[in-house]
Automatic annotation (TrEMBL):
Source species of the chain: Alaudala cheleensis
GO (cellular component) term, any one: mitochondrion
KW Ribonucleoprotein (keyword) present: no
Similarity section: Belongs to the peptidase M76 family.
Region described as Disordered: 1-27
A GO BP entry: mitochondrial protein processing
A Pfam match: Peptidase_M76
Alphabetically ordered keywords of this record: Hydrolase, Metal-binding, Metalloprotease, Protease
GO molecular function: metal ion binding; metalloendopeptidase activity
E.C. no: 3.4.24.-
PANTHER family attached to this UniProt entry: MITOCHONDRIAL INNER MEMBRANE PROTEASE (PTHR21711), MITOCHONDRIAL INNER MEMBRANE PROTEASE ATP23 HOMOLOG (PTHR21711:SF0)
Name under which the protein is recorded: Mitochondrial inner membrane protease ATP23
Taxonomy of the source species: Eukaryota, Metazoa, Chordata, Craniata, Vertebrata
């Protein structure tokens, strides 16, 4: 699975995974292998209800998400709430993931508690979904492909805004945004793939410049909501001139 908001797995868990075959991060999303709960049970589950409400608000009001949804629709990959999003319980170290096998975004209802966090996770995973739609991404066998999408997600989703970095007690001046993007891409790869840190770092470094500068569909790095709103407006007007010729 592609991954968002990842923390490094515990050492014991990592050792256990290394002894077997790579499960592509599915161990972090145990509800993926369970029989779906009934609507009544899910409706009575507070985490699930809250997750669904926050998701709906994100999709309806967040400029990052609205731009990505429109871009995917124009690319022939219309996103439907009930089909392409799933609120589930996950491992404690993740907040969301993109399941390429089902083209579904997993939102970790037990780990996402605030609307701002939901906004960021949905945006991060929608960038993975957008990449899946527009390109032949080999998520499971080509670590460079995964690295590229993780770089783009960290760069364009707001993961590395100044406020988020301050909240993580990380400070820097020149080049700090690029450092944050690189670090978070590496962390996400390590959370969902059975590879060494050296392999993850090499993959990220080899594709970093090209993928960091790939700003589609935003056309800019949206450092805040105001930037995202401008990017959304520009995207809507992108083909207006040629369409009227």
């Amino acid at each position: 699975m592609g991954e968002g908001e990842a923390e490094p797995p515990a050492a014991a868990e990592k050792k256990e995974t290394e002894e077997g075959e790579d499960d592509f991060g599915y161990r972090l999303f145990p509800d993926r292998n369970k029989k779906p709960q009934s609507f009544l049970v899910r409706s009575l589950f507070t985490f699930h209800n809250k997750c669904q409400l926050m998701l709906r608000l994100t999709l309806e009001t967040n400029p990052y998400a609205r731009l990505l949804l429109e871009a995917m629709k124009q690319s022939g990959c219309t996103v439907f709430n009930d089909r392409h999003f799933s609120c589930e319980n996950c491992d404690g170290c993740v907040s969301g993931g993109f399941d390429a096998a089902t083209s579904q975004i997993v939102l970790c209802q037990n780990n996402i508690r605030q609307q701002s966090h939901m906004n960021r996770v949905v945006t991060h995973e929608l960038i993975h979904a957008f990449d899946h739609c527009r390109a032949h991404v080999d998520w499971f066998k080509n670590v460079k492909h995964l690295a590229c999408s993780e770089i783009r997600a960290a760069n364009l989703s707001g993961d590395c805004t100044l406020l988020n970095e301050i909240a993580r007690f990380k400070f820097g001046l020149k080049g700090h945004h690029q450092t944050c993007v690189r670090d978070r891409a590496i962390r996400s790869i390590l959370a969902v793939r059975k590879v060494s840190k050296e392999t993850a770092e090499k993959a990220v470094d080899e594709v970093f410049d090209a993928c960091f500068n790939d700003l589609e569909p935003f056309g800019r790095i949206p450092h805040n909501k105001a930037d995202a709103k401008r990017a959304y407006r520009d995207f809507q007007n992108r083909d207006r001139y040629t369409a009227n010729l």
